[in-house]
Each structure stands twice: as C-alpha cells, then as structure tokens.
Amino acid sequence: MNPKILLVEDDKILGYALKTYLEMRHFQVNLQPNGAEGLSAFNSEQFDLCLLDVMMPIMDGFTLAEEIRKLNPAVPVIFLTARSMKIDKLQGFQKGADDYIVKPVDEEELIARIQAVLRRTNPSPVSISSYSIGTLSFDWHSRRLNDGAQTVILTDKEADLLRLLCERKNQLLDRKVVLQELWGKVDYFNRRSMDVHMAKLRKHLQLDPKVTIINIHGKGFILED
Amino acid sequence: MNPKILLVEDDKILGYALKTYLEMRHFQVNLQPNGAEGLSAFNSEQFDLCLLDVMMPIMDGFTLAEEIRKLNPAVPVIFLTARSMKIDKLQGFQKGADDYIVKPVDEEELIARIQAVLRRTNPSPVSISSYSIGTLSFDWHSRRLNDGAQTVILTDKEADLLRLLCERKNQLLDRKVVLQELWGKVDYFNRRSMDVHMAKLRKHLQLDPKVTIINIHGKGFILED
DNA sequence: TTACTTCTTAACTTCGTCTTAACGCTTTTA
DNA sequence: TAAAAGCGTTAAGACGAAGTTAAGAAGTAA
C-alpha cells in the first residue's frame, strides 16, 4: 500500500500542486487548508507522514505538530517553511520535526526527503535483509550465514532471531520484544524455546570468534561484534 | 553519554572548524581527512552519526556512505555538499543519506539537523537512559558502564541505584528515597542490602578514580565526579 | 510408508543476583 | 568515654534465570 500523507497548506494553488505531484508519485494525499482541519483529519485517519506548512491561519504548523505528537509521536512530520525563516526553523526542529523543506519547493527534493524519512520510520517491508556481523554476512531472505569460506543455512526461527539481533546490533534486545515478535506470546515455554534457538545461533556464530551474543540477566541479549 | 560523530572532510580548515564547533556543542568528534581513513575509523569504533563531505579524494562521500551502510545500516549519515550539486544530492539520498547540509555550513542549522536525525534514530525520547560520570558513560537500559576501554555489565539493582545517583549527581540522594524507590519499603534488611549494592557500585566506579560515592552520615549519598 | 527437518518440551546443569549474616570501623549520642 | 547506631565490606546460601542436550511432536518430501 502506498504511503498516506497528510498535507496541510493554506495556499490553495501550492497545496493543489503539491497534492497532484505527490499523487503522481504514488502517494495518497489528504489536503487540508488549515491547522484545525488538519488536526481533525489526523484524528480520523491513519497517516504515514505529515507535511505541514508553518505559516497558516487558525493554527500554525508548529502548534499542529505539537498536537499531532501528543496524539501519535511515531508519525513523522516535515515542515514547509519560507526561505527566510531561520529562527522558526530551529523552533520547529525543537518541537520534533523530522525534516523541513524550504519554499519554493523543489519537487524532487521533496520526494527524496519524504522517502528518506519514511525509510527511517517504517523499517520498510521490502527492507534491508542483508546484515554484516563481524566478518560474517547474513542474508535474512535466503537465511544464509556466510563466512567467506563456508555458508550455513539457518532455520526459519534462527534467521528471524538473528535478524532481530542484527537490527539492534550492539544494543540491548529485550527478551519480551523477541517473544512478542516471534512467538506472539510471553510464557515459560516460549522463553525456553527461545533459549534453545539462542544456543543454536551461538553455535553458528562461532564462525567468527569475535562475534558473541551476551546475555543481560533478566533483560535480554546483545549481539556484539 | 554525548553522541559520537564521525566527521570526514578533506578541507583541513573547514574540518577543524567543524570539529571544534561540534565539540563546543558537546559532541564527540572523530575527524578523518578522507574516505579511506573514514572507513577504517568507522570499522574500529561505534558512532552515532556520520557527517561526510561529498567531494573528497581517494573515496568520495557517497561511496563511503555505501560502505558504511554495508557495515551498519542503522547509523545515520548526513552529507556536506556544494550549493550547486543538485543531481548528486538526489543520488546521495538514494544511497541512504538521512539528510544533507549545503555549504557554506550554517552552524546552527547543522546542530539542528544533527539533533533531529539523532532524535529519530535513538529510540528513547521518553526517558533518558544515558548518563556520563567523569570519564565514564553509563547506559541504564542495557546496564552497561563504559570506560572507553572496558565495559562492565551491572546487575539490575546496581543499575537502578546508579541511575538514581546519576539523576542527582553531585547532590544528596536520600537513603529513604532510594529504599522507597527500589525496595518499596524502608527496613533494616533493605538498608543493609542497599549498602551491599553501594559497595559493589563503588568497586565498579573505580574505573575512573575521580568518581566517588560519598556518604552523608544518617542522610544519604552523593555521587561526585 | 520412511527419512528428514524443524520446533517444542523436558530435564539437568551452570551461572548470576539478591539477601542475609558477620565483623570491623566510624560517627553520633548519652 | 562508653554505648549505640550507622556504614563498609566480604562471604555464604537460596533462588531464579539461562545454557545445554536430548527426546518427542509435527510437518514435509521422496
């Protein structure tokens, strides 16, 4: 499904132009003429991204962004600002903007920025499936763990587990997160099952002696390389 | 702990100026003069963010960014580009830039963009879990206390205790507050238990000789650095 | 069917953490 | 100054968490 964008822009001509352009580039766009209506639109639908003009009547972009953050801090926000607007620009970032675009809008740049923000926020479904761990490389799709010399083919669960670890390499991966993601439920048996898989993964990862999965007692695991 | 930035810039004057400015703003900066050395620096340390000049001898910024992504796709990249460079700019985004800055660099804007990118990539806006104590860094979430050289993994209670101390660094932390927060009850045994944990913490904190936990008789403790 | 793979369950072992106890030193109080 | 209370420290034990191996169970392919 194409990403859904909430566009709030009071300038009708620019607003319509942007909407048309974004739709041409396969985004779904909901255009609203001011902050108040933008907010109520945000209330009634799910969006993947908000594109907000800063200078607007009724409710300005920054205030709207604050309201949006209160409702759902996960949805990224990009501001549209006038070229001169330097101080406001900074305030905008302070209030949790993910990016901003200076008017007049360069359409290609806009697309690029939107895609960059979406890539970061939605670890996309097509997504990265190749990871490097020390000297090893791991491809989640083909479930191969590669040494340079030899290749080990992991099982489904092992691969899923390793992917989670890779996504938080050198950071704590919480046990509960794993159980919720891969088993859907946190109970004693799933926990034990996970430990078994972890043991198998450790064995596979011995291909590179520097790679280890360390345990944080009572919390989770860290994949270190 | 302050964010660690890998800065790769071949212009020595600009590079040094940026490094100085960023350090003034409490970032840790590793400055490298070209792509090759930038890559090897990236290999040997963990960074929170990379700031790469696009036009460089030996290895240009885009190529470097690609190599960096291969090693760790989670680390955000910001490019430094010349004003005119439009097509390259877009290529940069395609190759996974998180943002770019047009030269000549506006320092405040640079800081704002860095902070924006870091806020997005570092997942915990809710509760701060990273503290610095003297030369040490402590991450409550993963319970790691870091020296630069070595890392000690604390236990749950130790980590909780250290967090409380950090939150009131160089101020009195009342015994009763600790007991109420971490044990839920103030009695003789909990008090003794806390003292045991305190002793262990002191031992860990010997990593930096300047850091001490001093006792205020009958009142509580002060973490000094 | 048999052979094979993968995941779960079980059982046993090892390890880590927290509490409790003990002892000695320091500070406060009577 | 003596007694009491507060604190630093080490060690031992209990308990739960995690590592490990192997035996079922369930599914898949030949």
UniProtKB/TrEMBL annotation, chains A, B:
<dbReference type="InterPro" id="IPR011006">
    <property type="entry name" value="CheY-like_superfamily"/>
</dbReference>
<protein>
    <submittedName>
        <fullName>DNA-binding response regulator, OmpR family, contains REC and winged-helix (WHTH) domain</fullName>
    </submittedName>
</protein>
<dbReference type="GO" id="GO:0005829">
    <property type="term" value="C:cytosol"/>
</dbReference>
<dbReference type="GO" id="GO:0000976">
    <property type="term" value="F:transcription cis-regulatory region binding"/>
</dbReference>
<feature type="DNA-binding region" description="OmpR/PhoB-type">
    <location>
        <begin position="128"/>
        <end position="225"/>
    </location>
</feature>
<dbReference type="InterPro" id="IPR016032">
    <property type="entry name" value="Sig_transdc_resp-reg_C-effctor"/>
</dbReference>
<dbReference type="Pfam" id="PF00486">
    <property type="entry name" value="Trans_reg_C"/>
</dbReference>
<dbReference type="InterPro" id="IPR039420">
    <property type="entry name" value="WalR-like"/>
</dbReference>
<dbReference type="InterPro" id="IPR001789">
    <property type="entry name" value="Sig_transdc_resp-reg_receiver"/>
</dbReference>
<dbReference type="GO" id="GO:0000156">
    <property type="term" value="F:phosphorelay response regulator activity"/>
</dbReference>
<keyword id="KW-0902">Two-component regulatory system</keyword>
<feature type="domain" description="Response regulatory">
    <location>
        <begin position="4"/>
        <end position="118"/>
    </location>
</feature>
<dbReference type="GO" id="GO:0032993">
    <property type="term" value="C:protein-DNA complex"/>
</dbReference>
<keyword id="KW-0238">DNA-binding</keyword>
<keyword id="KW-0597">Phosphoprotein</keyword>
<dbReference type="Pfam" id="PF00072">
    <property type="entry name" value="Response_reg"/>
</dbReference>
<feature type="modified residue" description="4-aspartylphosphate">
    <location>
        <position position="53"/>
    </location>
</feature>
<feature type="domain" description="OmpR/PhoB-type">
    <location>
        <begin position="128"/>
        <end position="225"/>
    </location>
</feature>
<dbReference type="InterPro" id="IPR001867">
    <property type="entry name" value="OmpR/PhoB-type_DNA-bd"/>
</dbReference>
<dbReference type="InterPro" id="IPR036388">
    <property type="entry name" value="WH-like_DNA-bd_sf"/>
</dbReference>
<dbReference type="GO" id="GO:0006355">
    <property type="term" value="P:regulation of DNA-templated transcription"/>
</dbReference>
